[in-house]
Amino acid sequence: MKAVGGFLKEKFRDQGKDQSACGPGISMTMPELTDSEFNQLSQLVYQHAGIHLPPQKKELVRSRLTKFIRSRKLGSFQAYYHLVLEDASGLELINLLDAISTNMTSFWREPKHFEFLGQELLPALRQKSKGAPQWRLWSAGCSSGEEPYTMAMVLMDKVNHKDLSGVKIYASDINTQVLNQAQRGIYPISRVEPLSQEWRRRFFQKGVNQWEGFVRVKPEVKQLVEFFRFNLMDSFRFKEEFDIIFCRNVMIYFEKATQTELVKKFYQCLKPGGYLFIGHSESLCNVSHQFAYVKPTIYRK
After folding, report:
1. What is the pTM of this model?
2. Could you say which of 62, 109, 136, 173 is catalytic?
3. Domain range spanning residue 48?
4. Active site residue 64
């Protein structure tokens, strides 16, 4: 089988797989997370990421931040809190938000959205396009990349390849670790089981040797997607308006006021007639907004 750019066309080899051994553990008694420390850290996370951490999340916070206490040889969560505040580089804050933000996703998750995208929305947009489409799509809260890559596969399945040259999917997340994974586009083969055999063969390369049991998203799929770190609490200063925004299973971590402000910003950065998709566990019923209801969890500007 012919190699392309160091990778086989249908299979890939990669010497970059992490094979480093874990170093010896540091033996130390871990401090307890007091209610006061939890409240301080929760407020910091809320202030910078809009994520609401109720009291029942205290143990989750303690377990996820313990690694920082250990690696930095700190004596308390209070000391870690001050370390984050005093870090002028902002890296400690990014590490904190990476640890706290929950990332759960999969290919073809909540299929009705992708069915609507491929069967109804893209054909309607295609009819309105004069010449090659110039669509802009955004996966807001893309986690490890399965959602925007699925969006790309739907586009490639429904639109001729030559007509996709002006189309771009932007994919953002606050978590730098999952963004790195998304940009690599390598997944355990079990993660693509929701996809048809045809799509697995068409859009992925199988790993060989030390990458046996993994697949990699093909370059032609990856080139449709541009990943970047973005905090949804920040101002939206995009140069172009979007045709479609997917923000699914993200707002469930926000309080109502934060949800309302975020939905307002989504509305403002969509083109007239643009679409917003939210998760099936979410609703805009109790959120003040200007969107028109299309279908459950699908809205139009």
Report:
1. 0.80
2. 173
3. 35-100
4. yes
